[in-house]
Amino acid sequence: MDLRINDNFSGNDYISTEFLRKLQLARLQTMVKHSYDNVELFRTRMDELKVKPEDIKTLKDINLLPFCKKTDLRDTYPFGLCAVPMSEIVRLHASSGTTGKPIVVAYTQRDLQVWSDVMRRALCCCGLSKNDVVQVSYGYGLFTGGLGAHGGAEALGATVVPASGGNTKRQVMLIRDFGVNAICCTPSYFLHLIEQAKELGIDLRDLPIRAGVFGAEPWTQGMRERLERGAGIEAFDIYGLSEIIGPGVAIECNQHQGMHIFEDHFYPEIIDPDTCEVLPDGETGELVLTTLSKFAMPMIRYRTRDITRIITEKCACGRTLRRIDRISARSDDMFIIRGVNVFPSQIESALLTVQGTTPNYMIKLSTAGNMDNIALDIELAQDVYAQGEAIIEQIRRMVTASVESVTGLRIKVTVVPFNSITRSGGKAKRVLDNRIR
Ligand code: ADP
Ligand code: ZN
């Protein structure tokens, strides 16, 4: 049994739990020492807590270590959390950073190998192999989605079509002409692809495409049904974030009962976001991840802000890796309206229970007098919209009622004409916040 970090980094989804825990501990100890020795911020925090790397004797001792947050990456922009000299760093990525400076992440050659390997295993979970043609329609560039999925698909030996985002009509053509079997992109972008294909008179259900590897943004069961039905595919939820590695942290298998975490590289915990107390497996809270084998920029107890729970029951697929539930929400996406906490995903699931609706919607927040106001614009399926006022009004009322029953809020719903809500090439923008603060 060789637990050294330099060996066996390709990992194994069917590893025995006993071996996995030993491997995790050995890797955690190496990671903590590496971070302590090379990252000032981490060392200072550990010193403040009077914890030394040698104090990590069991996996539970991870509890002794300080947390790390997105602001730590911002505050040390660009390279403050790097744990290796620049000469060892072979790739940089940056996350979108909607406000202020982006956050930068770095990889050594070996980190990139780990990344493409977890991504390769992720694609295996979707039943893909070297015999498949995989189109990568996540954006290439600083965003981790494109190159991350690309590396995995190549490591798998699949035929990769590096389409990147945008130019949607051409993407449809590539899917048809190249006999694409699987696509990696955001769920909202795939919805857009289905619409564009229709406009071109192409029915994706008639083509060999059979799998969608969808992630980078929250999506609901209702959205899954629309995508699967609309294109005749099986949709797989994939989770990842730049700070940890990019896409390939966790993914669904063919059972679709939560996402297996590649635990040999990423150690999960769930905490209460208010008290930071670690919650037992099964309870819902904020996901905290520790990288076990990333050397350029190790992340110890990184608070993802993503809300989920750990599923420990054995999966019917036989993988021994624990699972996380669908990411129901990202705590930063939550808004409070009239004292009620609302997540966009709640509105999406309420909306999609109503027949004739589409997952094209925009939540609009504004200030009216002293009050925060919320409104919802939705688009209907084109053929339903064409049926005229009476039907449109009926659906509008049903959506209003459905949203009210889920959120407790009576929201003004407006049905807007087809294609009036902006389609995104990557992560969809679901909330337009014009509140005066
Ligand atoms: P940014 O933080 O700028 O959006 P990333 O591209 O690294 O940069 O995004 C990672 C985030 O995207 C995750 O923390 C999570 O909130 C969201 N995300 C990624 N995959 C999924 C998924 N499958 N389901 C829900 N949310 C996801
Ligand atoms: Zn499984």
Describe it for me?
With 437 residues, the protein is α/β, with parallel strands linked by helices. It has 2 domains: 1-332, 3-Layer(aba) Sandwich (Rossmann fold); 335-433, 2-Layer Sandwich (GMP Synthetase, Chain A, domain 3). It is 30% helix and 24% strand. It is built from 11 helices and 21 strands. The chain has helices at 17-38, 40-48, 70-75, 109-125, 144-156, 168-177, 187-199, 221-231, 344-352, 382-385, 389-407, and strands spanning 89-94, 104-108, 133-136, 159-161, 182-185, 211-215, 234-241, 246-252, 259-261, 266-271, 285-291, 302-308, 310-311, 323-324, 329-330, 335-337, 340-342, 357-368, 371-380, 412-415, 431-434. The strands form 5 sheets. Strands 4-3-5-6-7-8-9-14-13 form a 9-stranded mixed sheet, sandwiched between helices. α1 (17-38) packs across α2 (40-48), α6 packs across α7 and α7 packs parallel to α8 (221-231). The protein is globular. Residues 1-9 have low confidence and may be disordered. It binds adenosine-5'-diphosphate (ADP) and zinc ion (ZN). Residues 253, 255, 260, 315, 317, 319 line the site of zinc ion (ZN).
